[in-house]
Amino acid sequence: MTDERRRAIRISRQETVKVELVIEDSNIPPLVFECNSRDFSRQGIRLHGRQPLEKDIDVNLMVHLQEEQKDLNLVGTIKWVTETTEKEYLAGLQLSESSDTDIGEWHLLFSE
């Protein structure tokens, strides 16, 4: 994704992110893995990790904010995925507004 397509200011920040892919079929256990953030915005997160992901998949996220010593539960959709030369992946996630998540606390990170 190019910088021109970004609508929000990005904060470079590496944090541990637990990702759970949302799977419609309840007979299939959810895929859960950890990766790292590269940067944050009010509307999204760029992730870096070894797990291949698919565009347009919904995910549940738990972002561990080390400096604040708290975990934020968020939901979002994978908007783009790129494989790096190291056989790792970068993915851009758009966060969803949902009352049963910590999106309000997430937005406070960008209020200054």
UniProtKB/TrEMBL annotation:
Protein name: PilZ domain-containing protein
UniProt GO molecular function: cyclic-di-GMP binding
Source species: Aliikangiella coralliicola
One Pfam family cited in the UniProt record for this chain: PilZ
InterPro entries noted in UniProt: PilZ_domain
UniProt-listed Gene3D superfamilies: predicted glycosyltransferase like domains (2.40.10.220)
Domain called PilZ: residue spans: 4-102
